[in-house]
Design brief:
By secondary structure, the protein is an alpha+beta fold. The chain is 31% helix and 25% strand. Helix 4 packs parallel to helix 12, helix 10 crosses helix 11 and helix 13 runs antiparallel to helix 14. The two termini are 16 Å apart.
Length: 392
Amino acid sequence: MNRVAALLVCVVLAGCNSVSSEGPLAGAIDGDAGRSSAELGRKNAAVFDLVDIDSRSARLVSDYVSTALNRRFGIGGGVGRVVIGVGDALRVTIFEAGSDGLFSTAQSKQVSLDIVVQPDGTAAIPYAGSVRFAGKTLEQARKAVLAALATKAVEPDVIVTSTGTASRTVTVSGAVGRPSLVPLDLTSEKITQVIAKAGGPVTQPYETSVTLVRGNKIGTALLKSIVEHPSEDIYVQPGDQVFLVRDPRTFTLMGSVKGDGRLEFGANDLNLLEAVALGHGATDESSNAQGFFLFRYEEPDIVRSLLGPARFQALLQKGMAPDSKGRYPIVYRFDMSHPDSLIVGQTFPVKSRDVIYVSRHPSVDIRKFLTLVGSPLGIASQGASTAANLGQ
Protein backbone atom coordinates (compact mmCIF):
# COMPACT_ATOMS: atom_id res chain seq x y z
CA MET A 1 0.00 0.00 0.00
CA ASN A 2 1.53 3.37 -0.99
CA ARG A 3 1.85 6.37 1.30
CA VAL A 4 -1.39 8.00 0.14
CA ALA A 5 -3.39 4.84 0.75
CA ALA A 6 -1.80 4.47 4.19
CA LEU A 7 -2.73 8.04 4.99
CA LEU A 8 -6.29 7.39 3.88
CA VAL A 9 -6.61 4.36 6.13
CA CYS A 10 -5.45 6.41 9.10
CA VAL A 11 -7.83 9.27 8.54
CA VAL A 12 -10.72 6.87 7.89
CA LEU A 13 -10.19 5.08 11.16
CA ALA A 14 -9.77 8.34 13.01
CA GLY A 15 -12.58 10.42 11.60
CA CYS A 16 -15.23 8.64 9.55
CA ASN A 17 -17.55 8.53 12.54
CA SER A 18 -17.79 12.32 12.36
CA VAL A 19 -19.50 12.23 8.96
CA SER A 20 -23.20 12.97 9.08
CA SER A 21 -25.22 9.82 8.47
CA GLU A 22 -28.68 8.85 7.27
CA GLY A 23 -29.78 6.38 9.88
CA PRO A 24 -27.78 3.71 11.73
CA LEU A 25 -25.50 1.17 10.12
CA ALA A 26 -26.35 -2.51 10.47
CA GLY A 27 -23.54 -2.90 13.00
CA ALA A 28 -24.99 -0.16 15.20
CA ILE A 29 -28.40 -1.86 15.31
CA ASP A 30 -26.76 -5.19 16.09
CA GLY A 31 -24.62 -3.58 18.80
CA ASP A 32 -27.56 -1.91 20.57
CA ALA A 33 -29.79 -4.99 20.57
CA GLY A 34 -30.35 -6.56 23.95
CA ARG A 35 -28.54 -3.82 25.88
CA SER A 36 -29.93 -1.70 28.69
CA SER A 37 -29.86 2.08 28.91
CA ALA A 38 -26.93 1.88 31.31
CA GLU A 39 -24.98 -0.41 28.97
CA LEU A 40 -25.66 1.93 26.07
CA GLY A 41 -24.77 5.00 28.10
CA ARG A 42 -28.00 6.72 27.03
CA LYS A 43 -30.67 7.64 29.54
CA ASN A 44 -34.11 6.12 28.83
CA ALA A 45 -32.90 4.37 25.68
CA ALA A 46 -35.45 1.88 24.28
CA VAL A 47 -34.48 -1.72 24.99
CA PHE A 48 -35.14 -4.11 22.12
CA ASP A 49 -33.85 -7.37 20.73
CA LEU A 50 -32.76 -8.45 17.29
CA VAL A 51 -34.02 -11.62 15.59
CA ASP A 52 -32.49 -13.03 12.42
CA ILE A 53 -35.31 -14.24 10.22
CA ASP A 54 -35.11 -17.70 8.69
CA SER A 55 -37.79 -20.07 7.40
CA ARG A 56 -38.75 -21.23 10.91
CA SER A 57 -39.11 -17.79 12.49
CA ALA A 58 -40.92 -16.42 9.43
CA ARG A 59 -43.44 -19.26 9.65
CA LEU A 60 -43.94 -18.73 13.39
CA VAL A 61 -44.73 -15.03 12.91
CA SER A 62 -46.98 -15.71 9.93
CA ASP A 63 -48.97 -18.40 11.74
CA TYR A 64 -49.53 -16.16 14.75
CA VAL A 65 -50.67 -13.17 12.71
CA SER A 66 -53.46 -15.27 11.17
CA THR A 67 -54.77 -16.54 14.54
CA ALA A 68 -54.73 -13.43 16.75
CA LEU A 69 -58.35 -13.58 18.01
CA ASN A 70 -58.43 -17.34 18.48
CA ARG A 71 -55.28 -17.21 20.61
CA ARG A 72 -56.62 -14.35 22.71
CA PHE A 73 -60.16 -15.66 23.34
CA GLY A 74 -60.35 -19.24 22.04
CA ILE A 75 -63.01 -20.65 19.79
CA GLY A 76 -63.97 -23.57 22.04
CA GLY A 77 -67.23 -25.33 21.25
CA GLY A 78 -69.57 -22.38 21.43
CA VAL A 79 -70.61 -20.32 24.42
CA GLY A 80 -71.83 -23.22 26.53
CA ARG A 81 -75.23 -23.34 28.24
CA VAL A 82 -77.62 -20.56 27.20
CA VAL A 83 -79.69 -19.31 30.15
CA ILE A 84 -82.42 -16.76 30.75
CA GLY A 85 -81.33 -13.38 32.04
CA VAL A 86 -82.82 -10.22 33.55
CA GLY A 87 -84.89 -8.29 31.00
CA ASP A 88 -85.58 -11.30 28.78
CA ALA A 89 -89.12 -11.60 27.41
CA LEU A 90 -90.80 -15.01 27.66
CA ARG A 91 -94.08 -16.54 26.64
CA VAL A 92 -95.42 -19.07 29.14
CA THR A 93 -98.21 -21.27 27.77
CA ILE A 94 -100.14 -23.28 30.35
CA PHE A 95 -102.36 -26.26 29.44
CA GLU A 96 -104.93 -27.97 31.65
CA ALA A 97 -106.67 -31.31 31.17
CA GLY A 98 -110.13 -30.20 32.37
CA SER A 99 -112.40 -27.35 31.34
CA ASP A 100 -112.96 -26.21 34.93
CA GLY A 101 -109.35 -25.46 35.78
CA LEU A 102 -107.65 -22.20 36.72
CA PHE A 103 -106.60 -21.39 33.17
CA SER A 104 -109.08 -23.38 31.03
CA THR A 105 -112.62 -22.78 29.83
CA ALA A 106 -115.12 -24.70 27.79
CA GLN A 107 -113.73 -22.99 24.70
CA SER A 108 -110.01 -23.32 25.46
CA LYS A 109 -107.83 -25.46 27.69
CA GLN A 110 -104.78 -23.24 27.51
CA VAL A 111 -103.61 -19.69 28.19
CA SER A 112 -100.51 -17.80 27.06
CA LEU A 113 -98.81 -15.28 29.34
CA ASP A 114 -96.18 -12.76 28.14
CA ILE A 115 -93.75 -11.94 30.93
CA VAL A 116 -90.49 -10.03 31.40
CA VAL A 117 -87.85 -11.22 33.87
CA GLN A 118 -87.50 -8.58 36.57
CA PRO A 119 -84.26 -7.22 38.09
CA ASP A 120 -84.49 -9.74 40.94
CA GLY A 121 -84.54 -12.57 38.39
CA THR A 122 -88.19 -13.53 38.89
CA ALA A 123 -91.51 -13.03 37.13
CA ALA A 124 -95.06 -13.40 38.41
CA ILE A 125 -97.24 -16.30 37.27
CA PRO A 126 -100.94 -16.20 38.32
CA TYR A 127 -101.72 -18.55 41.20
CA ALA A 128 -98.05 -19.61 41.33
CA GLY A 129 -96.57 -16.35 42.60
CA SER A 130 -93.03 -15.25 41.80
CA VAL A 131 -91.04 -17.85 39.91
CA ARG A 132 -87.29 -17.55 39.39
CA PHE A 133 -86.27 -17.57 35.73
CA ALA A 134 -82.82 -15.91 35.67
CA GLY A 135 -79.98 -18.40 35.34
CA LYS A 136 -82.24 -21.20 34.10
CA THR A 137 -82.50 -22.78 30.68
CA LEU A 138 -85.92 -22.79 28.99
CA GLU A 139 -86.43 -26.39 30.06
CA GLN A 140 -85.51 -25.64 33.66
CA ALA A 141 -87.89 -22.66 33.63
CA ARG A 142 -90.67 -24.88 32.26
CA LYS A 143 -90.15 -27.35 35.12
CA ALA A 144 -90.12 -24.55 37.70
CA VAL A 145 -93.49 -23.19 36.52
CA LEU A 146 -94.91 -26.70 36.32
CA ALA A 147 -93.82 -27.45 39.89
CA ALA A 148 -95.37 -24.21 41.15
CA LEU A 149 -98.75 -25.13 39.54
CA ALA A 150 -98.74 -28.82 40.35
CA THR A 151 -101.12 -28.56 43.33
CA LYS A 152 -103.22 -25.73 41.90
CA ALA A 153 -104.05 -26.46 38.26
CA VAL A 154 -105.76 -29.51 36.77
CA GLU A 155 -103.07 -31.82 35.35
CA PRO A 156 -101.09 -28.86 34.05
CA ASP A 157 -98.44 -28.81 31.37
CA VAL A 158 -96.25 -25.86 30.47
CA ILE A 159 -94.27 -24.57 27.49
CA VAL A 160 -91.80 -21.68 27.87
CA THR A 161 -90.47 -19.92 24.77
CA SER A 162 -88.19 -16.93 24.33
CA THR A 163 -89.57 -13.82 22.61
CA GLY A 164 -86.81 -11.35 23.48
CA THR A 165 -83.24 -11.63 24.70
CA ALA A 166 -82.42 -8.27 26.27
CA SER A 167 -79.82 -9.94 28.50
CA ARG A 168 -78.07 -11.48 25.50
CA THR A 169 -76.81 -8.63 23.36
CA VAL A 170 -73.55 -7.65 21.71
CA THR A 171 -72.64 -4.06 20.91
CA VAL A 172 -71.52 -3.68 17.30
CA SER A 173 -70.34 -0.21 16.33
CA GLY A 174 -67.99 1.67 14.07
CA ALA A 175 -67.70 1.08 10.33
CA VAL A 176 -70.87 -1.01 9.97
CA GLY A 177 -74.15 -0.37 8.20
CA ARG A 178 -76.29 -0.12 11.35
CA PRO A 179 -74.36 0.32 14.62
CA SER A 180 -76.58 -1.24 17.25
CA LEU A 181 -77.14 -3.58 20.15
CA VAL A 182 -77.43 -6.94 18.40
CA PRO A 183 -79.61 -9.54 20.15
CA LEU A 184 -78.19 -13.05 20.22
CA ASP A 185 -80.17 -16.13 19.36
CA LEU A 186 -80.35 -19.10 21.71
CA THR A 187 -77.79 -20.82 19.51
CA SER A 188 -74.12 -19.84 19.48
CA GLU A 189 -73.28 -17.02 17.07
CA LYS A 190 -69.95 -16.01 15.61
CA ILE A 191 -68.42 -12.60 15.15
CA THR A 192 -69.20 -12.42 11.41
CA GLN A 193 -72.85 -13.21 12.12
CA VAL A 194 -73.33 -10.32 14.53
CA ILE A 195 -71.49 -8.01 12.11
CA ALA A 196 -73.94 -9.08 9.41
CA LYS A 197 -76.87 -8.36 11.74
CA ALA A 198 -75.49 -4.85 12.19
CA GLY A 199 -75.60 -4.21 8.45
CA GLY A 200 -72.17 -5.58 7.55
CA PRO A 201 -68.89 -3.71 7.06
CA VAL A 202 -68.85 -0.51 5.02
CA THR A 203 -65.20 -0.79 3.94
CA GLN A 204 -63.02 -3.40 2.26
CA PRO A 205 -62.15 -6.38 4.50
CA TYR A 206 -58.40 -5.86 4.05
CA GLU A 207 -58.58 -2.33 5.47
CA THR A 208 -61.15 -3.04 8.20
CA SER A 209 -59.85 -3.93 11.65
CA VAL A 210 -62.15 -5.74 14.08
CA THR A 211 -61.61 -5.27 17.81
CA LEU A 212 -63.38 -7.50 20.30
CA VAL A 213 -63.60 -6.39 23.94
CA ARG A 214 -64.59 -9.00 26.51
CA GLY A 215 -64.12 -8.02 30.12
CA ASN A 216 -60.47 -7.01 30.45
CA LYS A 217 -59.39 -8.81 27.29
CA ILE A 218 -58.95 -7.04 23.96
CA GLY A 219 -58.14 -8.66 20.63
CA THR A 220 -57.81 -7.10 17.19
CA ALA A 221 -57.64 -8.71 13.75
CA LEU A 222 -58.30 -7.76 10.17
CA LEU A 223 -61.76 -8.67 8.95
CA LYS A 224 -60.03 -10.31 6.00
CA SER A 225 -58.18 -12.66 8.36
CA ILE A 226 -61.41 -13.53 10.18
CA VAL A 227 -63.13 -14.39 6.89
CA GLU A 228 -60.21 -16.39 5.50
CA HIS A 229 -59.41 -18.31 8.71
CA PRO A 230 -62.47 -20.05 10.22
CA SER A 231 -60.69 -20.44 13.56
CA GLU A 232 -60.63 -16.63 13.83
CA ASP A 233 -64.41 -16.39 13.46
CA ILE A 234 -64.85 -16.90 17.18
CA TYR A 235 -68.10 -17.20 19.11
CA VAL A 236 -69.32 -14.01 20.75
CA GLN A 237 -70.74 -13.86 24.24
CA PRO A 238 -73.38 -11.61 25.84
CA GLY A 239 -71.84 -8.30 26.79
CA ASP A 240 -69.09 -8.42 24.15
CA GLN A 241 -68.24 -5.20 22.34
CA VAL A 242 -67.27 -5.36 18.67
CA PHE A 243 -65.71 -2.32 17.00
CA LEU A 244 -65.02 -2.05 13.28
CA VAL A 245 -62.61 0.65 12.14
CA ARG A 246 -61.53 1.62 8.66
CA ASP A 247 -57.79 1.62 8.96
CA PRO A 248 -55.93 1.84 5.64
CA ARG A 249 -52.83 -0.16 6.39
CA THR A 250 -49.57 1.65 5.91
CA PHE A 251 -45.89 1.03 6.55
CA THR A 252 -42.85 3.28 6.54
CA LEU A 253 -39.92 2.54 4.24
CA MET A 254 -36.60 4.20 5.07
CA GLY A 255 -32.90 4.05 4.33
CA SER A 256 -31.08 3.07 1.17
CA VAL A 257 -34.13 2.67 -1.05
CA LYS A 258 -35.13 4.45 -4.21
CA GLY A 259 -38.47 5.62 -2.85
CA ASP A 260 -38.87 6.05 0.89
CA GLY A 261 -41.85 7.34 2.81
CA ARG A 262 -45.15 6.19 4.24
CA LEU A 263 -46.81 3.78 1.83
CA GLU A 264 -50.21 2.09 1.73
CA PHE A 265 -50.56 -1.66 1.35
CA GLY A 266 -53.12 -1.37 -1.43
CA ALA A 267 -53.80 -5.11 -1.27
CA ASN A 268 -55.07 -7.89 0.96
CA ASP A 269 -51.60 -9.04 1.96
CA LEU A 270 -48.09 -7.67 1.83
CA ASN A 271 -44.82 -9.48 2.44
CA LEU A 272 -41.39 -8.00 3.00
CA LEU A 273 -40.25 -8.28 -0.62
CA GLU A 274 -43.41 -6.65 -1.91
CA ALA A 275 -43.07 -3.84 0.62
CA VAL A 276 -39.54 -3.02 -0.50
CA ALA A 277 -40.66 -3.23 -4.13
CA LEU A 278 -43.33 -0.59 -3.44
CA GLY A 279 -40.41 1.75 -2.76
CA HIS A 280 -38.84 0.72 -6.09
CA GLY A 281 -36.28 -1.49 -4.38
CA ALA A 282 -32.98 -0.90 -2.64
CA THR A 283 -30.27 1.28 -4.15
CA ASP A 284 -27.63 -0.97 -5.69
CA GLU A 285 -24.72 1.39 -5.09
CA SER A 286 -25.29 2.07 -1.39
CA SER A 287 -27.53 -0.55 0.28
CA ASN A 288 -26.21 -3.30 2.53
CA ALA A 289 -27.64 -6.64 1.44
CA GLN A 290 -27.07 -8.00 4.95
CA GLY A 291 -28.88 -5.09 6.57
CA PHE A 292 -32.62 -5.24 5.81
CA PHE A 293 -34.48 -4.57 9.08
CA LEU A 294 -38.13 -4.49 10.11
CA PHE A 295 -38.97 -2.61 13.33
CA ARG A 296 -42.19 -3.61 15.08
CA TYR A 297 -44.00 -3.70 18.40
CA GLU A 298 -44.78 -7.41 18.53
CA GLU A 299 -47.28 -9.57 20.42
CA PRO A 300 -45.79 -10.93 23.68
CA ASP A 301 -46.50 -14.55 22.75
CA ILE A 302 -44.46 -14.19 19.57
CA VAL A 303 -41.58 -12.50 21.41
CA ARG A 304 -41.47 -15.27 24.01
CA SER A 305 -41.54 -17.96 21.33
CA LEU A 306 -38.77 -16.33 19.30
CA LEU A 307 -36.47 -15.41 22.18
CA GLY A 308 -37.27 -18.11 24.71
CA PRO A 309 -38.58 -17.49 28.24
CA ALA A 310 -35.14 -16.91 29.80
CA ARG A 311 -34.04 -14.33 27.23
CA PHE A 312 -37.43 -12.61 27.41
CA GLN A 313 -37.25 -12.28 31.20
CA ALA A 314 -33.67 -11.01 31.01
CA LEU A 315 -34.72 -8.25 28.62
CA LEU A 316 -37.60 -7.26 30.89
CA GLN A 317 -35.12 -6.88 33.73
CA LYS A 318 -32.98 -4.69 31.48
CA GLY A 319 -35.90 -2.36 30.90
CA MET A 320 -37.67 -3.64 27.78
CA ALA A 321 -41.14 -2.10 28.07
CA PRO A 322 -44.43 -2.75 26.25
CA ASP A 323 -46.51 -0.20 24.39
CA SER A 324 -50.08 0.73 25.34
CA LYS A 325 -51.37 -2.53 23.81
CA GLY A 326 -48.95 -4.78 25.66
CA ARG A 327 -46.65 -5.40 22.68
CA TYR A 328 -42.85 -5.41 22.90
CA PRO A 329 -40.22 -3.81 20.61
CA ILE A 330 -38.48 -6.25 18.31
CA VAL A 331 -36.27 -5.84 15.25
CA TYR A 332 -36.23 -8.47 12.52
CA ARG A 333 -33.14 -8.75 10.33
CA PHE A 334 -33.10 -10.19 6.81
CA ASP A 335 -29.87 -11.17 5.08
CA MET A 336 -30.67 -10.60 1.42
CA SER A 337 -27.25 -11.89 0.34
CA HIS A 338 -28.50 -15.46 0.78
CA PRO A 339 -30.58 -16.92 -2.09
CA ASP A 340 -33.20 -18.39 0.27
CA SER A 341 -33.98 -14.87 1.53
CA LEU A 342 -36.13 -14.47 -1.57
CA ILE A 343 -38.21 -17.40 -0.31
CA VAL A 344 -38.27 -16.36 3.35
CA GLY A 345 -39.16 -12.78 2.43
CA GLN A 346 -42.29 -13.99 0.65
CA THR A 347 -43.60 -15.73 3.77
CA PHE A 348 -42.95 -12.92 6.26
CA PRO A 349 -46.06 -10.73 6.64
CA VAL A 350 -45.77 -6.98 6.94
CA LYS A 351 -48.17 -5.44 9.47
CA SER A 352 -49.68 -2.00 9.59
CA ARG A 353 -47.36 0.65 11.08
CA ASP A 354 -44.23 -1.45 10.52
CA VAL A 355 -40.99 0.41 9.79
CA ILE A 356 -38.73 -1.19 7.17
CA TYR A 357 -35.20 0.13 7.14
CA VAL A 358 -32.52 -0.75 4.58
CA SER A 359 -29.14 0.18 5.99
CA ARG A 360 -26.40 1.62 3.86
CA HIS A 361 -23.15 -0.21 3.21
CA PRO A 362 -20.27 0.84 5.53
CA SER A 363 -18.24 1.94 2.50
CA VAL A 364 -20.76 4.73 1.87
CA ASP A 365 -19.65 6.63 4.97
CA ILE A 366 -16.03 5.98 4.12
CA ARG A 367 -16.48 7.40 0.63
CA LYS A 368 -18.24 10.46 2.05
CA PHE A 369 -15.42 11.11 4.48
CA LEU A 370 -12.70 10.57 1.92
CA THR A 371 -14.45 12.87 -0.51
CA LEU A 372 -14.71 15.49 2.23
CA VAL A 373 -11.05 15.41 3.26
CA GLY A 374 -9.56 14.27 -0.03
CA SER A 375 -10.82 16.95 -2.38
CA PRO A 376 -8.62 19.71 -0.99
CA LEU A 377 -5.64 17.35 -1.23
CA GLY A 378 -6.46 16.23 -4.78
CA ILE A 379 -6.75 12.57 -3.80
CA ALA A 380 -10.52 12.11 -4.02
CA SER A 381 -10.41 9.50 -6.78
CA GLN A 382 -7.84 7.37 -5.00
CA GLY A 383 -9.85 7.77 -1.78
CA ALA A 384 -12.94 6.39 -3.47
CA SER A 385 -10.98 3.38 -4.69
CA THR A 386 -9.55 2.75 -1.24
CA ALA A 387 -13.03 3.07 0.30
CA ALA A 388 -14.33 0.42 -2.02
CA ASN A 389 -11.55 -1.93 -0.96
CA LEU A 390 -12.13 -1.21 2.74
CA GLY A 391 -15.83 -1.92 2.40
CA GLN A 392 -15.23 -5.41 1.04
